[in-house]
Amino acid sequence: AQPSKLDFFCKLGYSKQDICKVLENLGQEALEDDVLKELIRMGSKPQALESQAQPSSLQLIARGSCSTKPASKWLGEDESDSSSYLRPIVIDGSNVAMSHGNKEVFSCWGIQLAVDWFRERGHTYIKVFVPLWRKEPPRQDSPIADQHILEELEKQSILVYTPSRKVKGKRVVCYDDRYIVKVAYEKDGVIVSNDHYRDLQNENPEWKWFIEQRLLMYSFVSNRFMPPDDPLGRHGPTLNNFLSKKPVLSEPKWQPCPYGKKCTYGNKCKFYHPERPPQAQLSVADELRANVQVPLNLRKEENNCLLHR
């Protein structure tokens, strides 16, 4: 097997045996994108994931619920991240950079703004995926701004380059979207992108659910990275809960009843009554019955006797 391909997939956590098996089937010249696709099809998993006895770590977590076990460690994750209450962040570097550059310039500053936003929130696992050819000197048809930021983020082990190479003068680029979705899925994290990845949704039903539930869209407003407060719509979780492994339910804010003590709705009143004890309230009718000396059950017995006469 070619050392470069073997090393690359070993870094992603795949076993040499699985990688060599795929390369034998596809040929030594197979593209990295095709090799990854075949590894996924085979059901091969990174070794860090396979070593866990319980398969529950790979189960998809329902919206708003919390994962039962911390995410597995791979791709250079810090030990402290496994105990973090914040979800791992996987950023679509090309999407963010082109969005910040108004779809005309690959603006690396946009990536930095996004990374800083998540850092300030306390996220310790942040990965940015960018095609390798973005390291090349910028051309007129693909301008890049602040390219030095990519080098700085790579040194911080935040930025990951997806493979690309030139064959007979033509650039062969691996599909970076597949890396983005796969890493986010395996890490039970969040994808930061304005892309809907419709082709990958059709390719894998589990990815379809994951993309629908874990895609965080965003906007840039005056060089400010701004995700929405309601990532899954007005009836979904808040942004804080969306980015947390353990969502926190906010306490209900009760509005005082405008009728106060004159209210006649009893326990059916939807407003807050400070003068009433916290236990369930009796309705007005029940309160009147409770005040009557003759017990309600005795009354029913008397009525039954009258009916039978």
From TrEMBL:
<dbReference type="GO" id="GO:0004521">
    <property type="term" value="F:RNA endonuclease activity"/>
</dbReference>
<keyword id="KW-0460">Magnesium</keyword>
<dbReference type="GO" id="GO:0008270">
    <property type="term" value="F:zinc ion binding"/>
</dbReference>
<dbReference type="Pfam" id="PF11977">
    <property type="entry name" value="RNase_Zc3h12a"/>
</dbReference>
<dbReference type="InterPro" id="IPR040546">
    <property type="entry name" value="Rege-1_UBA-like"/>
</dbReference>
<feature type="domain" description="C3H1-type">
    <location>
        <begin position="251"/>
        <end position="276"/>
    </location>
</feature>
<keyword id="KW-0540">Nuclease</keyword>
<dbReference type="Pfam" id="PF18039">
    <property type="entry name" value="UBA_6"/>
</dbReference>
<keyword id="KW-0863">Zinc-finger</keyword>
<dbReference type="GO" id="GO:0003729">
    <property type="term" value="F:mRNA binding"/>
</dbReference>
<keyword id="KW-0479">Metal-binding</keyword>
<keyword id="KW-0862">Zinc</keyword>
<dbReference type="GO" id="GO:0005634">
    <property type="term" value="C:nucleus"/>
</dbReference>
<dbReference type="InterPro" id="IPR000571">
    <property type="entry name" value="Znf_CCCH"/>
</dbReference>
<keyword id="KW-0378">Hydrolase</keyword>
<feature type="zinc finger region" description="C3H1-type">
    <location>
        <begin position="251"/>
        <end position="276"/>
    </location>
</feature>
<comment type="similarity">
    <text>Belongs to the ZC3H12 family.</text>
</comment>
<dbReference type="GO" id="GO:0016787">
    <property type="term" value="F:hydrolase activity"/>
</dbReference>
<dbReference type="GO" id="GO:0036464">
    <property type="term" value="C:cytoplasmic ribonucleoprotein granule"/>
</dbReference>
<keyword id="KW-0255">Endonuclease</keyword>
<protein>
    <submittedName>
        <fullName>ZC12D ribonuclease</fullName>
    </submittedName>
</protein>
<dbReference type="InterPro" id="IPR021869">
    <property type="entry name" value="RNase_Zc3h12_NYN"/>
</dbReference>
<dbReference type="InterPro" id="IPR051101">
    <property type="entry name" value="ZC3H12/N4BP1_RNase_Reg"/>
</dbReference>
